[in-house]
Amino acid sequence: DGGITQSPKYLFRKEGQNVTLSCEQNLNHDAMYWYRQDPGQGLRLIYYSQIVNDFQKGDIAEGYSVSREKKESFPLTVTSAQKNPTAFYLCASSIVQGNYGYTFGSGTRLTVV
Amino acid sequence: GQQVMQIPQYQHVQEGEDFTTYCNSSTTLSNIQWYKQRPGGHPVFLIQLVKSGEVKKQKRLTFQFGEAKKNSSLHITATQTTDVGTYFCAGQGYSTLTFGKGTMLLVSP
What we know:
The complex is a heterodimer.
Chain A: E1 4-7, E2 10-13, E3 19-25, E4 31-37, E5 43-51, E6 54-57, E7 64-66, E8 76-78, E9 87-94, E10 103-104, E11 108-112
Parallel strand pairs in A: 2-11
Antiparallel strand pairs in A: 1-3, 3-8, 4-5, 4-9, 5-6, 7-8, 9-10, 9-11
Chain B: E1 4-7, E2 10-14, E3 19-25, E4 32-37, E5 43-49, E6 55-58, E7 61-65, E8 71-76, E9 85-92, E10 97-99, E11 103-108
Parallel strand pairs in B: 2-11
Antiparallel strand pairs in B: 1-3, 3-8, 4-5, 4-9, 6-7, 7-8, 9-10, 9-11
């Protein structure tokens, strides 16, 4: 089945450590996105990429980094510079043009202690 | 930047009652999308509206796009317990979607 796989589902890290969240899709979508979800805050865009080897900052990119070396993969690194990293992180993908919505992964819940 | 406001933030209904959530954008939208997120789950795409004044139906769900393409609504007729979740609207910007904060729907049997 085609879809987006995020791993791990739950992740615990100590404060000051960098952590990388995985996102893989086999939908052949060109565009991929990272969103952060906090209670009552909706979904806020961190980074997005519409083509391999290119990505753009979203609304809350500070303290995060990404790479897009392959069409299928868009990993997100939460660095120690992110002041409040505990959150639910959602990866999504889409066709760049057309009347299609985003397909979301099942998310990674990151807790920093 | 583009802002998308959604009301109400939360609604609790009895099974069989109707439910409506409203979405307003600060700018004219090229299209608007609606998503549903079940508790503990991830957002799932429901529908996209593109044309001014467009109305689309999916069984008990009715979606409307305003004439000015700055507002939208989702109406659920005769809610069921399976409708529980958070409903998000999302406005299409230049390259990405801007999501509203969502309306959480709780349905009591």
